[in-house]
Design a protein that fits this description.
Blueprint (H helix, E strand, L loop, with lengths): L1 E4 L25 H17 L1 H8 L6 H8 L7 E2 H4 L3 H6 L6 H10 E5 L3 E4 L3 E2 L9 E2 L3 E2 H12 L8 E3 L3 H6 L6 E8 L5 E3 L4 H14 L7 H10 L3 E6 L2 E6 L2
Parallel strand pairs: 1-3, 1-8, 8-9, 9-12
Antiparallel strand pairs: 2-5, 3-4, 6-7, 9-10, 11-12
Helix pairs in contact: 1-2, 1-3, 6-9
Pfam families: H2O2_YaaD
GO biological process, one term: response to hydroperoxide
Protein name: Peroxide stress protein YaaA
């Protein structure tokens, strides 16, 4: 089973790992694309910091993000799961993992990335700033860069249960055929429902945690539903590749 998460704009800084080595990352078929994107980002941020702030959509107060991007190849690394912060990762609450639950989580969790495509939870990466909607010089849209190689790199996942919790922009970088997606809605006392926006990250983080640390083996949607419901989540079967998570206001 694989659970795909969105990354976050906010990330921890620093780390104790050696500088970025693309050969050390999972899905080695993505190495050439990763290098192209990284080289373009580093060159832009090193050669034209002011222009880079505009391309990356950063205010002057976030100028340090450009500096860190320019140092991408020399910055220390940390496991991807601890690099990303924010609402979803707060809900995932990895600090509370035991050795056993961390091992299960690291074997199941993957994180979408505009810079790296997809990362396994333990992959060592530096701090960086790049979002899915960015157009890097000489590369065009990141969707056009990533989609061919990313979808091809995950082709051998076809026989596994893949739960794709990525947001729209990161899902579009490389859809995984046959993956199960989850929509989050709030149901009100009168029975009406509304699609959850910001807090979708929180609820997806809670769901990801329940699935990632479970001792159960989940090979299909029905086994996933059993684990999620035992953990207290309200999940509805919409189709073979679509579920609805119902939350309270």
């Amino acid at each position: 089973m694989r659970i795909l998460l969105s990354p976050s704009e906010t990330k921890s800084v620093g780390g104790s790992g050696d500088p970025l080595d693309l050969a050390a990352l999972s899905l080695p078929a993505l190495t050439d694309t990763r290098r192209s994107v990284a080289d373009s980002l580093v060159a832009m941020c090193g050669d034209d910091p002011a222009g880079a702030r505009s391309v990356l959509g950063l205010s002057d107060t976030l100028a340090e993000e450009v500096t860190l991007d320019a140092r991408l190849w020399s910055s220390p690394t940390a496991p991807a799961l601890s690099r990303y912060t924010g609402v979803l990762y707060d809900a995932l609450d990895q600090a509370s993992f035991t050795r056993a639950t961390r091992s299960r989580a690291e074997s199941r969790l993957w994180i979408g990335s505009a810079l790296f495509g997809l990362l396994a939870a333990a992959d060592p990466i530096p701090h960086y700033r790049l979002s899915a909607g960015t157009r890097l010089p000489g590369l065009g849209t990141l969707r056009s860069v990533w989609k061919p190689s990313l979808t091809a790199a995950t082709a051998d996942w076809a026989d596994e249960l893949v739960v794709d919790l990525r947001s729209g922009g990161y899902h579009q970088l490389g859809p995984v055929p046959g993956a199960v997606t989850v929509d989050v809605v709030t149901q009100y006392p009168d029975g009406t429902r509304k699609v959850v926006s910001h807090f979708s990250k929180h609820h997806k983080g809670l769901l990801a945690r329940s699935l990632a640390i479970s001792r159960a083996e989940m090979a299909d949607v029905q086994s996933l539903l059993r684990v999620a419901r035992r953990a207290g989540h309200t999940l509805e079967y919409t189709s073979a590749t679509s579920l609805t998570m119902v939350t309270e206001p």
